[in-house]
Write a structure and sequence with these properties.
Chain A is mainly alpha-helical. Chain A is 73% helix and 5% strand. The chains are: A mainly alpha (277), B alpha/beta (272).
């Protein structure tokens, strides 16, 4: 019984997460500063920031970048609580397992701050270890915040189009776009299949039957995707596709974009001078 | 002399070489005609339309387009393929199949871009087609966010923007509300009045007279059971019954229940 609920919970939560994270464009379509920038300029400048986060050795630079992130979120009309929750969720995921051991003297010898013993083993947190771990967590926090900010303020199809400026072949960009577009269709199919099963067999299913049902659903979904694949290819052929897809490009760089680019250059130059000092 | 667009002689087609989809089809489509294809589910209508669009090819028999035989080899010729795709447009039964791009706008301009239209020309056509179909507000939306009616309109727009001479439509009004159905019928009638050849497969018998001069009835043996003027076909109740296109049931008119074959054609107006 517990297993059956596990299947139910897993399906529902996985679909909810997918819909929320992939298809939520609530902030990307609302009018705000970052939303109004040309996606190409936005992606390039955010990449510059991320590079700066990766290479800087100054905590002040990291803090100033994080403050800038929060300011950008504010002027882009993003709910700060939503933004902080969204970014902080990833921090333990990316940093906890690396940062926690690093605070101890086994990995970071140095000036001891606190010591205690368990089962004859002596644990010591060092100043150098703690500083290193904090610096690492800060680096992860700022990187994740920048990427989340870019992601929620840019329509996903625009992000895909931007890939083309990095000389990624159109066929890859198009395939990614199609994957993204059809995930939603398949999410709908999974949900309906699950409801159809539930309406016939009820909520309580023996875990072995549950496993069989899930396995058959996967097979059925696979078959549908193969059929859809053939039909979509025919639909492309019928509109003149000949193996090399061409795409519409209607990005326009405005004065505001150049101004933003200039600000980013000045900020970078300023932090470079600060570090050099 | 009539200008024959499509001519099919004794065409057979099967899936994987064992599931028969079309059996000995003979048919002619003349320029400017409105052709209706009716038949029960699984009678081969969609396969027939895909053969006309050069998406699948006959196992045996001949399919000619403007006197030229359609086969895989000829579609490998870039010039012929591009010319054919410019002249023959196809609207798929399932709009989700046809809308594969991230946005509605990308989907509509996909065809003209592949066919080498000028950007300025595409922009002009895009502006015109979205106004005609009333889908201006949908341009930056993702196809998965649309209702079935909106998806169908976008799928039609993505074909009409190419401005093909021949328009092939597979169940264009399936699952649509009456108003959207009416808009699509009016669009097809106008396209035909502008000189386009229209070939439509449908289950909706009440739209057949408007969208077809000549109707072909496909049967369960995957053959053409009968063809003729729309009026003659729709009055042949035995033929329609034999091909699962009408059914007998009881229903009410002005508080009076009665039983008759249900085709929703002209009997309601007589009773009124």
């Amino acid at each position: 019984m517990g297993n059956s609920n596990f299947i139910q919970r897993s399906i529902i939560q996985a679909l909810t997460f997918l819909k929320d994270s992939v298809f939520s464009q609530e902030y990307a379509i609302c009018p705000g500063f970052l939303q109004s920038l040309d996606p190409r300029i936005k992606v390039i400048t955010f990449l510059v920031f991320v590079m700066q986060v990766l290479f800087t050795r100054s905590i002040q630079v990291l803090i100033s970048l994080y403050v800038l992130c929060l300011l950008l979120a504010l002027i882009s009309k993003i709910n700060l609580r939503f933004f902080l929750i969204r970014t902080l969720v990833f921090i333990p995921l990316f940093s906890l397992f690396i940062a926690v051991p690093a605070i101890f003297s086994f990995f970071s010898p140095g000036e001891a701050l606190i010591s205690w013993g368990i089962l004859g083993l002596k644990f010591t947190i060092t100043r150098q270890g703690l500083a290193g771990a904090l610096f690492f967590v800060m680096r992860v926090l700022v990187s994740v915040s920048l990427i989340v900010l870019l992601n929620i303020t840019t329509k996903h199809f625009e992000l895909l189009k931007v890939l083309r400026i990095f000389r990624i072949p159109q066929v890859f960009v198009m395939t990614l776009g199609m994957c993204y577009r059809y995930i939603y269709l398949f999410v709908g199919i999974i949900q309906n299949t699950y409801l159809a099963i539930k309406s016939r067999v009820g909520i309580l299913v023996h875990y072995k039957s549950g496993q069989n049902i899930v396995a058959w659903s996967i097979v059925s979904l696979w078959n549908r995707s193969v059929l859809l694949n053939e039909e979509v290819y025919r639909a492309m052929l019928s509109r003149g596709y000949q193996g090399e897809a061409l795409a519409w490009d209607d990005f326009k760089i405005k004065t505001k974009d150049w101004f933003w680019l200039l600000l980013v250059v000045i900020f970078n130059f300023g932090t470079f001078l600060f570090i050099a000092k | 002399m009539d200008n024959i667009i499509f001519e099919l002689n004794d065409v057979y087609f099967s899936y994987l070489g064992k599931f028969l989809a079309l059996s000995g089809i003979n048919l002619k489509v003349i320029q400017g005609q409105k052709i209706g294809i009716i038949g029960a589910n699984g009678s081969g209508k969609s396969s027939f339309l895909q053969i006309l669009n050069g998406l699948i090819f006959a196992d045996s028999g001949k399919v000619n387009f403007c006197g030229q035989e359609l086969n895989e080899k000829i579609f490998r010729e870039n010039k012929f393929s591009q010319d054919f795709r410019r002249r023959v447009g196809f609207v798929f039964q399932n709009p989700d199949v046809q809308l594969f791009c991230p946005t509605v706008k990308d989907d509509i301009v996909f065809g003209p871009l592949q066919l080498g239209f000028e950007k300025s020309q595409i922009e002009k056509r895009l502006e015109k087609i979205v106004v005609t179909l009333g889908i201006q507000e949908l341009l930056n939306r993702c196809p998965y966010q649309l209702s079935i009616g909106e998806k169908r309109k976008v799928a039609i727009a993505s074909t009409l923007i190419i401005e093909p001479e021949i328009l092939i439509l597979d169940e264009p009004t399936a699952g649509l509300d009456p108003l959207t159905t009416r808009q699509i019928i009016d669009l097809l009638i106008k396209a035909n009045a502008d000189g386009k050849t229209i070939i439509t497969a449908t289950h909706d018998l009440h739209i057949v007279e408007e969208i077809a001069d000549v109707v072909y009835v496909f049967n369960h043996e995957k053959k053409v059971a009968k063809f003729g003027h729309a009026e003659d076909i729709l009055n042949d109740l035995e033929l329609l019954k034999a091909n699962n296109l009408v059914h007998i049931h009881s229903h009410k008119h002005k508080a009076m229940a009665h039983v008759h074959p249900h085709v929703h054609l002209d009997h309601h107006t007589e009773e009124n």
